[in-house]
Automatic annotation (TrEMBL):
This is Trehalose-6-phosphate synthase. InterPro entries: Glyco_trans_20. Belongs to the glycosyltransferase 20 family. It comes from the Bacteria.
Amino acid sequence: MSRLIVVSNRVAKSDGANKGSEGGLAVGVMAAMEKDGGVWFGWSGKIDNRNEAPKTETRGNIEYVTINLRQSEYNQYYKGYANSVLWPLFHQRPELMRYSDTDLSGYLQANQKFADELLKIIQPGDTIWIHDYHLIPLGKMLRDAGIKNPIGFFLHTPFPSLDLLRTVPGYHKILKGLMHYDLVGFQTQFDHMGFCMGIAQGLGGEILKNDKLRVGNLHCTARVYPISVETSALNGAAQGGMQTDEYRRLHSSLGDRSLIIGVDRLDYSKGLVQRFQAYDKLLGHYQEFMRKVVYLQISPTSRGDVQAYGDLAKRIDREAGHIIGTYADFDWMPLRYLNRGFRRRTILAMYNLARVGLVTPLKDGMNLVAKEYVAAQNPEDPGVLVLSELAGAADELDAAVVINPYDVSAITGGLAKALNMPLDERIDRWRKMMDVLEAHDIHAWQSQFLGDLKQVTGPKLVTSSS
Ligand code: G6P
């Protein structure tokens, strides 16, 4: 029997429990796996210092195998090296990096724990697909243990240029770690280029034909696979969400005001400070929008025990307080800022209701909110996407109102343009974006990656010194 084994730090919760705070990886991989099924291995989300055996649970055609993390593993691997070194580095914020050797060794130990558990379940014929920055060394660990199966890796985040990458001690191990995969997938050409240049200049490797790379006796293929959404299903799901009590209450609370919506984990990569400042400017400079708009920002708390996230939460609270204190009236609240998530279908229905989808990350691998916002629109009266040019999604969704997320005035201008846009232009822009999403949905993403993995897999050279 040949199975797909997907490995990621975070696995999707069951649909009912999904409150929209899981991020793009869980949403994307879930949609991709639902069709053909497989095994999904990852962290349970629980911290437990007893060494319990992995838990297996089958939902639909996916078998979830999850392990707990010990407190020290959570601190050093998840909170430490993954989210206080790799995440800020990959999102171009080296000043937020907090590097320590202890965290790096905890990161490697946690990867070894994943490897040890996976070795118990991998069978000949299985295809292994590892996801994201938490698990870069895992491929080599599996190879060292003698696994010969095809192993692919997909990075959901951006990948930095060598110049930035080398700010982290031991950066060459990150590059070399990726060389142990048969196929490495990136979101954009920029990310792919950063990796190839890193291999060539940082490791003295060679860039060969057909996207192949070589470093000593290690070979891998690296290509671009922009992740997408379940395009055809999202409009129907949005219709379903319209039956919910939350949607009805939101709808009736708006009256004839236009809704601007933002949905992001509370993360410094999402550009929330600049976004709030831009909204402040919109209300301050454009009198015509006073009392006519409502901005709903849904931002579930994320990685709250990492200091940079705690600091951000306080900063956003201040910005929100300033907007409300300055512009609100006893019968109009210009901003609704929520630190909790909602079920996906409710969120999709909210996207459908919103005249503007505001997606302004300072840096983002792809940003599936942008794609979901487009796919959830009503074709006869679609809303407008205001999109950061620094989100991977901007490469494909160039019919959005594209802005530089560091330029507060440009976001304000983009918002005004979106709110004033005539129907024919809205339909025209939306159609162009939908064409892209219909031609390349999440199933195309999965089958392209797995099809290529099958094609490129050949005998893998493994050395103990690499
Ligand atoms: C991003 C990352 C994912 C991560 C998600 C949520 O989308 O690429 O790997 O799972 O954020 O973050 P969390 O730390 O809660 O898993």
